[in-house]
Amino acid sequence: MSDVTIHKGLDNVIIDESRLSLVNGTEGKLVYAGYKIEDLAAHALYEEVVYLLWNNRLPNQTELEALRAEIAANAAVPQPVIDALKSMPKDADPMAIMRTAVSMLAHYDPDSETNTPEANRRKAVRLNGQAVTLAAAWPRIRKGLEPVAPRADYNLAENFIYMLRDVAPPEQTAVDAVNAYMVLLTEHGMNASTFATRVTVSTGSDMHSAIVSGISTLKGPAHGGANTEAMKMFLEIGDPANTEKWFVDNIKSGKRRIMGIGHRVYKALDPRAAVLRDRAEALAKGSGNEKWFRIADDLATLARADQYFIERTLYPNVDYFSAIVLYTLDLDVDMFTPLFAMSRMAGWTAHIMEQASNNRLMRPDVLYTGAVDQPYVPLAERG
Ligand code: ACO
């Protein structure tokens, strides 16, 4: 068996073709269906990017308004799901809540077990809206507040801030930041959670099941869970005066990793991190509290100058400065990963539809290293 190559962690394994996004890890470049992430983050509405991924071109004004309205009109979460959320433990992990809630949504979706392109598109519309409604509902429900229903005249970023705070119209600075965050997080090649959705749908399973796989996979701290972990780390540092000592005690000592730094593909600065750093700085200045941005930026600067990080080409990833953006918006720290999930919904659903349109069952292999030909000893005769 010495001629077998094991691709542990599936590094550099190309599973298919995709027209959805280009992730160039050496140049630190990210393109969604032809468009640079920097341009989209600066100018595009999240729904514009959703249209781009689902249709492979940008919409005109009429097409964009039609999609915005369609998603908003389908963003409500059925009452039995809301009632079930109210019965769940208030201290449950919000990603586990989202996983359960999306699984429940399938029971109330008329297309749940129909996997035609038309049904998949209808489900994708509903899931993109409902994910935002769920992410705004849970922080309210666990505090004993009533969830707020989505409004048909709002886009998703507006609806998120409106449903979270129950204030209309929603504050524009927060809406702009959430929209830019959602655009930056929409899609990212064959990352672990997207791969999980494609594996699930490759068996002929349905979109809700695939999204549950995606949420379950995103939850881990090596993937989407890193934004929450990064913020916990900044909170632990607590004051810019502590940053250098914390770095020496925890990182130089080799005891811990800096959460939000490092990436399997990017061996240059993650372009999303560059945009989010500027956003985080502007929001922090605007809020009058620059402390958390200062800690994050100083820690990144210490790492950038450190031989260990230089040798291993470790740079901030998307989760690093997004933690500061979301914290400045006054979001609960453990809600950061559900925000990632609601933003990635467009990418996941686009990949699911792409996989379904040209499917081949995903079935890799593993090199067996256990025993063979063991004699079966009857239970009564085993010592
Ligand atoms: N801090 C300190 N050292 C690190 C870090 C870090 N954040 N990340 C990697 N390293 C080191 C490893 O210890 C290892 O060193 P070694 O070669 O001396 O053993 C080397 O860099 C390579 O690390 P691997 O874990 O082998 O790299 P891999 O590609 O498997 O991991 C990962 C990538 C999981 C993202 C890693 O960098 C990490 O754990 N980062 C922190 C968590 C994080 O931010 N995850 C979010 C990623 S982006 C996303 O999914 C949205």
The structure class reads mainly alpha
Which sheet architecture does the biggest sheet show?
3 strands, antiparallel
**What ligands are attached or bound here?**
acetyl coenzyme *A
The radius of gyration computed from the alpha-carbon positions, rounded to a whole number of angstroms, is: 22 Å
Uncertain parts: none
Major sheet: arrangement of strands = 1-2-3
Mean pLDDT: 97
Q: What is the count of distinct domains?
A: 2
- Stated plainly, the CATH topology of the largest domain is called Citrate Synthase, domain 1
Number of strands: 3
What share of residues is helical? 55-70%
- The number of helical runs is 17
The portion of residues forming beta strands comes to: under 5%
Pattern of helices and strands: EEEHHHHHHHHHHHHHHHHH
* Distance between the ends: 34 Å
- Under CATH, the homologous superfamily of the largest domain reads Citrate Synthase, domain 1
CATH architecture of the largest domain: Orthogonal Bundle
Q: Supply the CATH class of the largest domain.
A: Mainly Alpha
